[in-house]
Amino acid sequence: MTESGLEQRLPGHPAVTECVVVEGEQVIAYVVVGETGRLTKFLTELVPRRRLPDVVAVVPALPRTPEGEIDVAALPLPVAEGPRPEGGKGGGAAAGSGSLVVGGTLLFGFLAFATTNVFWPYSTDLSGVPLPWAALFFGLYLFECLSFGLGVMVLLRGRSALARRGRSASLTTAAWLALAWLLLAWWPQDNFYRLAAKTDWPQQAALVYAFNVTLMIAAAVLVAFVSGRRR
């Protein structure tokens, strides 16, 4: 059952013949109606206003897989959005969310860059590296910090976007954390490696298992998420 329970309750409307509710950045209720009725009024009487869908998309039929299950990925994007009663997310929600992700990535990336020498003194010291190699390594440090910033934003906001893929809750959570780790890990990993002695085998082994192996596991989790069956 979806968090709001709409998918089980919407068929109670006499005009609704079929429906599916997709919960992600927005809650979208896809409904097949025999005739247009006072569906909005019905919804406001059905669930609390805070649980109303952001968009009610009327479609002629719900797409299905060869096995007869609802194909969530094939559902069309709504071409028009009506406002949620008493205010709701407008058409600019997606743009606002994208700006927030970009802004957060830059903010946390800058914080990572600014604190690198606090956590790992001299790990990014390029004073003995000649050009153009020094510039290339400096660019690498910037990319690592931006990747960390994006990873923080995925950790803060990414699960709802993955939930729209229709996988199980446990697999969605695992994929969310795996994707965040794939982005977060590069900043601490490379700084630890740069300061580790090449012949310090205990430290090298610890770094390999803490980062390399966990990154492989994270990639495997994402493969399972992409190839898994929808609920």
Shape: elongated
In helices, the fraction of residues equals 40-55%
Structure class: mainly alpha
The H/E string reads: HEEHEHHHHH
The oligomerization state is single chain
Q: Uncertain runs with pLDDT below 50, 5 residues or more?
A: 80-91
Number of helices: 7
Commentary on this structure:
This protein has helices at residues 6-9, 39-46, 93-119, 133-163, 169-184, 186-195, 201-227, and strands spanning 16-23, 27-33, 55-58. The chain is mainly α. The chain has two domains: 6-74, GMP Synthetase, Chain A, domain 3; 93-227, no CATH class. Strand 1 (16-23) and strand 2 form a beta hairpin. Helix 5 (169-184) crosses helix 7. The protein is elongated, with a radius of gyration of 24 Å. The termini are close together.
SSE diagram, text form:
Blueprint: H1 6-9, E1 16-23, E2 27-33, H2 39-46, E3 55-58, H3 93-119, H4 133-163, H5 169-184, H6 186-195, H7 201-227
Parallel strand pairs: 2-3
Antiparallel strand pairs: 1-2
Helix pairs in contact: 3-4, 4-5, 5-7
Organism: Nonomuraea angiospora
InterPro entries: AMP-bd_C, AMP-bd_C_sf
Transmembrane segments: 93-113, 133-156, 168-187, 207-226
Features:
231 residues, mainly alpha, membrane, 2 domains, GMP Synthetase, Chain A, domain 3, elongated
Short description:
This protein is mainly α. It has helices at residues 6-9, 39-46, 93-119, 133-163, 169-184, 186-195, 201-227, and strands spanning 16-23, 27-33, 55-58. The protein has a three-stranded mixed beta sheet, with no helix packed on it.
